[in-house]
Task: inverse folding
């Protein structure tokens, strides 16, 4: 029985369409993955729902190097740059501190305080600061109560190799500039734990506050 050309053409089209299905699936998966990555990176542009530019920074309590209580209310009267660091184990945080030392004097000359908020005492970051002759102020958040209050807690953020010494949770890398009244003028949560904002951005914000 002779084959109908129309039926042969239809069958060939079905086979071609079927062969294209895996390629279409791959393209859809790649586009979906790209969208997810874009959304995650875009979400990092804002520090958190509680750190919003134009609003007063939420009150929280941490410890000074002397073990005394401290918080945003202690900064009233002067602008301040608050840098939240993940931990002594984080090489990107140590690099950030080294970068900050190059802008420390500019920030200081603009009348602002530079505060480093860390989960535990930071011997490495202190050594970096001492090496460059800068006098950073360190605030400690050992129980991560400030991280919770600000919505920047990172559960399970400490790598497994360091959890015996530092626990499993830490805070997310966040940079905030507040004015003399405690109003947030700049807030950034790093899009990637390896990335940090350029300290020159803090200087520009502080210059606009003069």
Result:
């Amino acid at each position: 029985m002779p084959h109908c050309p129309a039926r042969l053409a239809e069958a060939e089209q079905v086979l071609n369409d079927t062969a294209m299905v895996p390629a279409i699936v791959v393209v859809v998966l790649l586009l979906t993955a790209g969208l997810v990555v874009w959304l995650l990176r875009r979400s990092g542009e804002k520090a958190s729902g509680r750190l919003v530019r134009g609003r007063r920074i939420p009150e929280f309590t941490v410890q000074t190097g002397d073990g005394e209580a401290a918080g945003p209310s202690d900064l009233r009267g002067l602008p301040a740059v608050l840098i939240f660091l993940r931990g002594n184990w984080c090489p990107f945080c140590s690099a950030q501190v080294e970068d900050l030392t190059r802008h420390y004097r500019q920030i200081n000359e603009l009348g602002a305080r530079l505060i480093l908020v860390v989960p535990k005492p930071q011997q490495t970051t202190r050594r970096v600061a001492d090496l460059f002759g800068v006098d950073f102020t360190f605030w400690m958040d050992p129980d991560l109560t400030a991280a919770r209050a600000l919505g920047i807690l990172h559960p399970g953020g400490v790598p497994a190799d360091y959890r015996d010494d530092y626990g499993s949770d830490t805070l997310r890398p966040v940079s905030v500039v507040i004015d003399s009244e405690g109003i947030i003028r700049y807030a950034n949560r790093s899009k990637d734990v390896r990335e940090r904002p350029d300290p020159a951005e803090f200087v520009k914000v502080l210059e606009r506050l003069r």
Observations:
- Residues 47 and 206 are 18 Å apart (CA to CA).
